[in-house]
Specification:
Elements lengths: L17 H32 L2 H27 L3 H24 L5 H29 L5 H30 L1 H8 L1
Helix pairs in contact: 1-2, 1-4, 1-5, 1-6, 2-4, 3-4, 3-6, 4-5, 5-6
Length: 184
């Protein structure tokens, strides 16, 4: 058995901490859902508008708040409980995804609505991403922080691989509403 720097065994040592294990599973599912949303939204914009320009605007609306508010979110969450922030951002994202299911299922998903939802998701993103980065440090002891952060990073990378692949299949077979339902 290979021991880490602090005597902990294995690449998945931090998964022995029950709270981190619960977070890890939940965050993996949440991240896959987020990538479902991101790809489905892009495909829906192209399907609805046929415009690369509209796609660029919608993606810009979703990512610009991270650039503008990312540092502020970090300062704010350093002073507040990142767990509560993560619960709040996930609840808001789930509610918005559910609303997007209704908008797409009823056939009202025009470019304007998609832009509004993109901006709304984008405004939540800086706080969600920051809390996601801070939580592993809160859940494990100092000897496991490096391992927990590595697993957290692995989760994000795995979600970037699996989420869009499954979303593309789901979008093609069942339509955009089902992609947003998975995210919700």
């Amino acid at each position: 058995m290979q021991l880490g720097v602090h005597g902990e065994a294995g690449a998945f040592a931090s998964l022995r901490v029950a709270n981190f294990r619960r977070y890890f599973v939940g965050q993996t599912l949440s991240s896959v859902g987020t990538w479902f949303h991101i790809l489905a939204l892009a495909l829906l914009v192209v399907e609805e508008t046929g415009s690369g320009g509209a796609l660029g605007v919608v993606v810009g609306l979703q990512t610009l708040p991270l650039l503008v508010f990312g540092s502020y979110a970090g300062v704010l969450l350093d002073r507040h409980d990142p767990r509560r922030a993560l619960v709040a951002t996930n609840a808001v994202n789930a509610a918005m995804a559910a609303a997007l299911v209704v908008v797409t299922a009823t056939g009202h998903a025009g470019a304007w609505w998609l832009g509004v939802f993109s901006l709304a998701f984008g405004l939540v993103m800086p706080f969600d991403r920051t809390a996601t980065a801070l939580i592993p440090v809160e859940l494990v002891g100092p000897p496991l922080v490096s391992n927990a952060l590595g697993l957290n990073s692995m989760t994000q990378s795995l979600a970037r691989l699996i989420g869009p692949a499954l979303a593309g299949l789901t979008f093609g077979l069942a339509g955009p509403s089902w992609c947003f339902a998975v995210d919700a």
